[in-house]
Amino acid sequence: SFGSFFGGIEGTMKLRAALFIAFFITTLCAPTFSQKGVEGGGDAEDNEENEPEDFKGVFTRSMRKLQRQVRRRHNHYRKRHNAQPLEADDELDRYAQAWAYYLAKIGKVMHRRSRTYGENIYQGYYDDNHPIRGRDAVDTWYNEINLYDFSKNHRQRGTREFTQMIWKKTSALGTGIARGKNRTYFLVTVYDPRGNIRGKI
């Protein structure tokens, strides 16, 4: 009959309306991820899938020599600020080396999204008269001291590499180095525990 027919249509329409409302509420209440995390301010676990695997090859003698140069130069400056000397750490070296290779591949400076360790990055240029030296990066970072006001007990613009270098609670250092295009090279250092923690300067 017409009554049962229209009754069936009415029931179907009510069911569809109920499903639509349920879908709308579910979508509206679903958890969202902050854009900050996507852009690089999130925690390490938010971005692990984008991190390169640690370097698993063999470090050459020249690479090990440069790592020692970088560590000695750090400790030279840390001594001025009564900070403990940094120890070598092979795991950190491999972590830093993986990122140095990545930067050489893309040809630009970019920090890891992960905040597991502290990190400094230096892009330099080399030729026959200007070989790659570990001290060049470290000296550049330390020269940020000229921008740092020790009377202010908080982070200051343009000094993050310097403050990470002399952070007193940092105890281990890793270093990676890779050549890029057009005689560029990228030197990456990672620090454990990391420095530049808000409210602890």
Largest sheet: 4 strands, mixed
What shape does the CA trace take?
A: globular
Q: Order of strands side by side in the largest beta sheet?
A: 1-3-4-2
Number of domains: 2
Determine the structural class based on helices, strands and strand pairing: alpha+beta
Strands, helices and their partners?
Blueprint: H1 2-29, H2 35-41, H3 44-47, H4 61-80, E1 87-88, H5 90-106, E2 118-125, H6 134-142, H7 160-165, E3 172-179, E4 184-192
Parallel strand pairs: 1-3
Antiparallel strand pairs: 2-4, 3-4
In short:
By secondary structure, the protein is α+β, with helices and mostly antiparallel strands. The protein contains seven helices and four strands.
Q: Would you give an account of this structure?
A:
- The chain is an alpha+beta fold and 201 residues long.
- The model is unreliable at 1-9 and 18-49 (pLDDT under 50).
- Strand 3 (172-179) and strand 4 (184-192) form a beta hairpin.
- The protein has two domains: 2-31; 37-192, CAP (Pathogenesis-related Protein p14a), CATH 3.40.33.10.
- The protein has helices spanning 2-29, 35-41, 44-47, 61-80, 90-106, 134-142, 160-165, and strands at 87-88, 118-125, 172-179, 184-192.
- It contains seven helices and four strands; from the N terminus they run H-H-H-H-E-H-E-H-H-E-E.
- Helix 4 packs parallel to helix 6.
Question: What attributes does this structure have?
Answer:
201 residues, alpha+beta, Pathogenesis-related Protein p14a, 2 domains, four-stranded mixed β-sheet, 45% helix, globular, disordered N terminus, CRISP-related, CAP_sf, Putative antigen-5, SCP_GAPR1-like, signal
